[in-house]
Design a protein that fits this description.
4-stranded antiparallel beta sheet, 7 strands, mainly beta
Length: 84
């Protein structure tokens, strides 16, 4: 598991071999998953290896990364019916 807290986070399309949970502290962010249109969100769960792009301005955001190979990560992805 890894945790990152950052402010004004802007990324290009990328992917991680980890399930990612992103939460805002106060203001929403924009997220695009697998090249889809950007959606406004306060919390998002991104399946491991799924390309995504993040735009967060004027707030702090917390990113939690869970190892894609662990059993609890597989169970979480299966129970959430996450897009792959």
């Amino acid at each position: 598991m890894a945790v990152y807290i950052g402010r004004q986070v802007l990324t290009k399309m990328h992917a991680h071999h980890a399930l990612e949970i992103v939460m805002s502290f106060k203001k929403s962010f924009l997220i695009s998953k697998n090249g889809t249109e950007f959606e406004k969100s306060d919390c998002s769960i991104i399946a491991a290896d799924l390309p995504h792009q993040f735009i967060g301005k004027d707030d702090f955001y917390i990113f939690i990364y869970l190892d894609a190979e662990l059993n609890y990560t597989h169970r979480l992805e299966a129970s959430m019916y996450l897009e792959k």
